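Worked example 3 (structure in, sequence out).
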């Protein structure tokens, strides 16, 4: 029951938030830049475990996303957009810091008993925008630390309503798909009284992560499937948020929809579609090539951007972009400044959003997120249309198989322009391979040197059952503790 209430609460709070702050006034930064510049509102919607092929506008086999497809016709759709990691916590950490896990310290998931979270010396997007005069809020799944100062209210967000980690975790974490999680932790509401400010709303959906539960159960009807029904529910929710934007702050709000990683293939019928990005080289050898892997199906995610009058309608961008780019792009649009004394892996892509450029990254790096190798290790990278693998391996597949970890020296290199299924690597004896090899090798050495000389953070992954935010793990429904000092909420 609680997960159904959470889904409803997420929507209600998002709608109230938008309705309360639809009117803005002109703000001037402390430095006096852009006098009279009207700062835009930002809404980032992050879907969980969604596949590139789940959107009808991406992969016409699906008809479950009419509202998202409408956003694609009214805004911009991205063909080559990637999550910064292919599992939950690292992906979210990179979105909110603009930095790879090897820099921000978050290389794998935090657990129910994790003592810490995103390192406190990392600056979040919420921190920067709040300093720039924004009202900031996060609704939904956090998964970057729930104990003490790692709570989102201490990480740049005025308001928080949500769950501390994935909704299959916590005090009712048992096999199956029908048990509720811990209910939402109460958030701080005092900040909601501030008006006249631009806002940053980060909505981290529970969809499409298992368990699949509907606010209005209908998928037990003949011909219905749980995943499709949940996809339609998520799509309708996004549609209602967009409708609220259109009826309140249409001309001054950027809405950006994307995913944290690809589908969780081991969940079989409860997992989404990678579309054409099947990673055939890996699947022929066993294991999944989706979530937790560096194959395209693990990190190429459906992405749309909408801003009436600013982002061209019915546009398709081929630019190679990443969730790493959200941080620097929003900071630029807010007329703010990036935090000093650290390197960023994202870039300002506002010109791409506005249809003025198709220039994205020349190089993207894909860290291990659990399928093979050391957590956070850069085991694959893109240079233009070429994808190089120094380490391969599959995640657990629906049939229970797990692909064997293999190191490659020289690396496997695929030309994605001709082989989007990553089925057949280039022959090492060809001129094409010999021309690309020194380029990818140099790119890898350059990023490793850059990280080694950067101001990097280290996450504390120690565990203590006492930090679990539920008072009685034996109860089917458990309540959050309000035990942290200084009247803060431990949840």
């Amino acid at each position: 029951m609680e997960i159904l209430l959470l889904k409803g609460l997420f929507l209600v709070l998002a709608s109230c938030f938008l309705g309360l702050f639809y009117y803005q006034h002109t703000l001037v930064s402390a430095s006096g830049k852009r006098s009279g510049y009207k700062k835009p509102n930002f809404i980032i919607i992050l879907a969980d475990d969604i596949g590139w092929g789940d959107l009808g506008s991406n992969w016409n086999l699906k008809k479950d996303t009419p509202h998202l497809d409408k956003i694609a016709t009214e805004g911009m759709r991205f063909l080559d957009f990637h999550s910064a990691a292919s599992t939950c916590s690292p992906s979210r950490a990179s979105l909110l810091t603009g930095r790879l896990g090897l820099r921000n310290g978050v290389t794998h998931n935090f657990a129910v008993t994790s003592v810490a979270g995103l390192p406190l010396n990392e600056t979040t997007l919420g921190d920067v925008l709040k300093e720039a005069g924004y009202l900031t809020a996060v609704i939904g799944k956090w998964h970057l630390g729930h104990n003490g100062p790692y709570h989102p209210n201490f990480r740049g967000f005025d308001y928080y309503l949500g769950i501390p980690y994935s909704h299959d975790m916590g005090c009712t974490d048992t096999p199956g798909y029908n048990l509720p999680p811990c209910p939402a932790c109460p958030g701080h509401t005092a900040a909601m009284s501030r008006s006249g400010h631009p806002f940053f709303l980060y909505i981290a959906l529970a969809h499409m992560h298992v368990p699949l539960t509907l606010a209005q159960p209908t998928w037990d009807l003949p011909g219905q499937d749980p995943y499709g029904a949940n996809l339609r529910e998520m799509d309708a929710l996004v549609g209602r948020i967009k409708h609220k934007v259109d009826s309140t702050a249409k001309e001054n709000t950027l809405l950006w929809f994307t995913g944290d990683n690809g589908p969780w293939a081991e969940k079989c019928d409860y997992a989404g579609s990678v579309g054409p990005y099947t990673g055939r080289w890996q699947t022929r050898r066993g294991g999944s090539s989706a979530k937790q892997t560096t194959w395209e199906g693990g990190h190429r995610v459906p992405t749309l951007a909408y801003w009436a009058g600013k982002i061209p309608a019915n546009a398709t961008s081929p630019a190679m972009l990443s969730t790493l780019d959200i941080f620097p792009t929003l900071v630029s649009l807010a007329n703010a400044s990036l935090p000093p004394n650290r390197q960023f892996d994202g870039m300002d892509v506002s010109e791409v959003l506005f249809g003025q450029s198709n220039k994205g990254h020349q190089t993207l790096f894909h860290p291990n997120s659990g399928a093979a190798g050391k957590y956070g290790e850069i085991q694959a990278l893109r240079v233009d249309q070429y994808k190089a693998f120094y380490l391969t391996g599959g995640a657990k597949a629906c049939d229970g198989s797990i692909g064997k970890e293999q190191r490659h020296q020289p690396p496997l290199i695929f030309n994605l322009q001709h082989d989007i299924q990553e089925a057949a690597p280039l022959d090492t004896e060809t001129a094409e391979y010999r021309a690309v090899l020194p380029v990818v090798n140099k790119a890898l050495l350059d990023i490793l040197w850059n990280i080694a000389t950067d101001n990097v953070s280290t996450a504390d992954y120690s565990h203590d059952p006492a930090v679990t935010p539920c008072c009685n793990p034996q109860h089917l429904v458990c309540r959050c503790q309000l035990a942290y000092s200084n009247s803060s909420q431990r949840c």
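Notes: The two ends are 19 Å apart (CA to CA). The first helix runs from residue 2 to 20.
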